[in-house]
Fold this sequence. Notes:
Elements: E1 11-20, H1 23-33, E2 37-41, E3 44-49, E4 52-58, E5 63-71, H2 76-86, E6 104-107, E7 113-117, E8 134-142, H3 145-155, E9 159-165, E10 171-177, E11 185-189, E12 194-201, H4 205-217, E13 224-228, E14 235-240, E15 246-251, E16 263-266, H5 269-272
Parallel strand pairs: 1-4, 5-7, 8-11, 9-16, 12-15
Antiparallel strand pairs: 1-5, 2-3, 3-4, 6-7, 8-12, 9-10, 10-11, 13-14, 14-15
Amino acid sequence: xxxxxxxxxxxxxxxxxxxxxxxxxxxxxxxxxxxxxxxxxxxxxxxxxxxxxxxxxxxxxxxxxxxxxxxxxxxxxxxxxxxxxxxxxxxxxxxxxxxxxxxxxxxxxxxxxxxxxxxxxxxxxxxxxxxxxxxxxxxxxxxxxxxxxxxxxxxxxxxxxxxxxxxxxxxxxxxxxxxxxxxxxxxxxxxxxxxxxxxxxxxxxxxxxxxxxxxxxxxxxxxxxxxxxxxxxxxxxxxxxxxxxxxxxxxxxxxxxxxxxxxxxxxxxxxxxxxxxxxxxx
Length: 282
């Protein structure tokens, strides 16, 4: 069997849709916490801001409706479509109106929808914005971390940057990239399938401080951090949204050169936080 090209996929997380039993309340949270401006589209709320976009739709709490990745060239789409079909996948109807026609939509082994396409409207990049934070990655929990990682690598063309293994060598976490940033998707081994967190890259440590001041000024406490992850080496703080989802503000995420060997980390607290307490997912 021929070897798949390394790092075939070149895409950035453009927007994501989160399910909620109370979409209006959750939209109000993100309007405050991430300074998003929301418009209503039927039963959905679409929030946009500089380099970040979140869609809130009715459904189960702590569930990812879909994650949408903007490809760096439209020529990637037919290649991705052929790759999905070749691996026995089935293309689905895209649920997002934020991408132009021709977007590729598939479901991963846990049923999460992944969409790859070209944005109808280019992302806003207002240099005057003082609290910058680009939507950068999404992380899910899964009952089968290995099957999920294999799907993202083999079928979608993500590249494994780092993995976390337990004492028996079993994979507990996989960090996968679709460009030069350490990861744009990750999956944890867990007792249930669910959304774990989504992350916004602020860019530098000073902005992490400013975001912490801003969040706590709105009465949103920092739940974890400040700290530094092992895989990715990024600085972070975490808060909870109104439904209890983790939201991460990050800075200085590692940029990975082509051909870099996969990093292997032990399943322990220090891997999750080089500075102190780690939140063990499994």
